[in-house]
């Protein structure tokens, strides 16, 4: 076996360096070793690839390279034993097909108006001139959307409890330094609610119990008129023609809701940061949005070219998913001139691919125009991964992102509290804005609404 070059640093030190400055570390590694790099995890070589041709082979060579669910075991506590990330083969294909039906065009259009309403309701309650954390507000919107679209719960005590538990679990991903020190001391031992892992297990048990109760009640009260993902799953058949079990349905709900609340919320917060940091971007975007009048159709918003370019550039420069899900070399292969043996793990490095100067000139600069000038292949721009493990809700995430941004920008005048650069903070799979993007509402846009109250109560 001839492995690509890479640092000889112990894995624990690599982890510390990455946690401290994830983008800086990956930039340094790429600069020193190129676009295919080996990092050793014990005796297992993990090869990170940021070359489009290499990524294409990883995603398309399904004979020698496999996307095993076992490689995603680290996520099982959050997604359940029967979540789509843990499945393989025919079962995986069956469940993906069922889940993807939820995100078809007609259903997206139906929920588009609701996304705009939720956005206006939540941002409209923000007091003028009072600073707020944009990420928290956006997360509130995206989690509500996720729970409504996935579970069909738009109100009530259970809706609020489920949202609170999802929010609490997501908060654990963005740990403070003291949290990480405690986790290092206690490890993954359940020492009760006062230990990091014990508290996570407590939240998980509560969340799983609420979801299981909802699944059981909905199965006992079948309603053919409902159009949410939970209903799809209850009526769905597995690869043998049998109904899915309640536990399977529960676990399949988890990843889409987490993705809606976490990944989408983070991407929108980053977009708000860049739009309000760069006046020229904001001005051009507002001109495009204003050309559609007061209440544009959600599907029309989705097709706006400059809005699409802004969203793509936000996902390029700070991708919410830094790496695609891992693959395993099952038979000897040659990849980019290197002979790789079975047992080698391959990971498409999304961030470093998006930073290639031969693809994106001045990659550190936020330049939406690049997406108007060139159409990138799915191996050059891959914010949602690719191949058989590409994010199921990627199209819906973009739809949600565009509608939320369009509603906020069209209705309200916002500013960043500080012009200091926002730093990324790594947690789980995602890089969050470290300060959450601190903003302030200056008022309602005067060309949209004439009055300007002290509190934007539009509900």
Order of helices and strands: HHEEHEHHHEHHHHHHHHHEEEEHHHEEEE
Shape: globular
**Poorly predicted spans:** 175-187, 449-459
Q: Mean of the pLDDT scores?
A: 87
Q: Write down the CATH class.
A: Mainly Alpha
> Structural class, please?
alpha+beta
Distance between the termini: 64 Å
Could you say what the CATH topology is called?
Answer: Cytochrome p450
CATH superfamily: Cytochrome P450
Name the CATH architecture.
Orthogonal Bundle
Q: State the helical fraction.
A: 40-55%
Separate helix tally: 18
Lateral arrangement of strands in the main beta sheet: 1-2-8-5-3
Tell me the quaternary state: single chain
Count of individual beta strands: 12
Radius of gyration: 22 Å
Largest sheet: 5 strands, mixed
Strand content: 5-15%
- How many domains, as an integer? 1
Describe this structure in words.
This protein has 18 helices and twelve strands. It is an alpha+beta fold and 459 residues long. The protein has one domain (11-444): Cytochrome P450 (Cytochrome p450), CATH 1.10.630. The strands form four sheets. Strands 1-2-8-5-3 form a five-stranded mixed β-sheet. A three-stranded antiparallel β-sheet has the order 4-12-9. The longest helix has 32 residues, at 246-277.
């Amino acid at each position: 076996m001839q492995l690509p070059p890479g640092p000889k640093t112990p894995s624990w030190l690599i982890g510390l360096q990455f946690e401290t400055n994830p983008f800086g570390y990956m930039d340094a590694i790429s600069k020193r070793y190129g676009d295919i790099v080996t990092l050793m995890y014990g005796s297992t070589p993990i090869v990170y690839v940021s070359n489009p041709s290499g990524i294409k082979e990883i995603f398309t060579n399904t004979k020698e390279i496999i996307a095993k669910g076992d490689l995603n075991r680290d996520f099982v506590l959050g997604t359940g034993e029967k979540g789509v990330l843990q499945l393989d083969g025919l079962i995986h294909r069956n469940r993906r097909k069922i889940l993807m039906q939820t995100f078809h065009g007609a259903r997206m259009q139906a929920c588009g108006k609701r996304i705009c309403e939720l956005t206006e309701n939540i941002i409209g309650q923000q007091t003028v001139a009072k600073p707020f954390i944009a990420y928290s507000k956006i997360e509130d919107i995206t989690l509500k959307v996720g729970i409504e679209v996935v579970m069909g719960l738009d109100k009530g005590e259970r809706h609020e409890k489920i949202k609170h538990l999802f929010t609490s679990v997501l908060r654990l991903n963005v740990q403070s330094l003291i949290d990480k020190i405690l986790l290092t001391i206690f490890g993954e031992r359940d020492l009760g609610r006062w230990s990091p892992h014990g508290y996570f297990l407590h939240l998980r048990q509560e969340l799983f119990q609420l979801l299981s109760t909802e699944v059981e009640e909905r199965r006992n009260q079948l309603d053919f008129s409902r159009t949410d993902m939970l209903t799809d799953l209850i009526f769905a058949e597995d690869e043998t023609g049998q109904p899915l079990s309640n536990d399977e349905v529960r676990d399949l709900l988890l990843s889409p809701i987490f993705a809606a609340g976490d990944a989408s919320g983070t991407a929108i917060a980053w977009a708000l940061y860049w739009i309000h940091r760069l006046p020229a971007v904001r001005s051009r975007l507002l001109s495009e949005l204003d050309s559609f009048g007061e209440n544009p159709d959600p599907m029309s918003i989705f097709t706006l070219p400059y809005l699409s370019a802004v969203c793509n550039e936000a996902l390029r420069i700070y991708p919410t998913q830094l790496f695609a899900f891992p693959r395993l070399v099952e038979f000897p292969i040659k990849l980019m001139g290197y002979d790789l043996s079975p047992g080698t793990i391959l990971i498409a490095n999304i961030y470093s691919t998006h930073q290639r100067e031969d693809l994106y000139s001045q990659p550190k600069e936020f330049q939406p125009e690049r997406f108007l000038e060139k159409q990138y292949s799915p191996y050059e721009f891959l914010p949602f991964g690719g191949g058989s493990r590409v994010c199921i809700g990627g199209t819906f995430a973009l739809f949600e992102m565009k509608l939320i941004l369009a509603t906020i920008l069209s209705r309200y005048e916002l500013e960043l509290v500080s012009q200091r650069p926002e730093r990324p903070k790594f947690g789980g799979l995602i890089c969050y804005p470290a300060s959450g993007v601190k903003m302030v509402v200056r008022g309602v846009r005067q060309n949209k609404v004439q009055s300007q109250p002290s509190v934007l109560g539009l509900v």
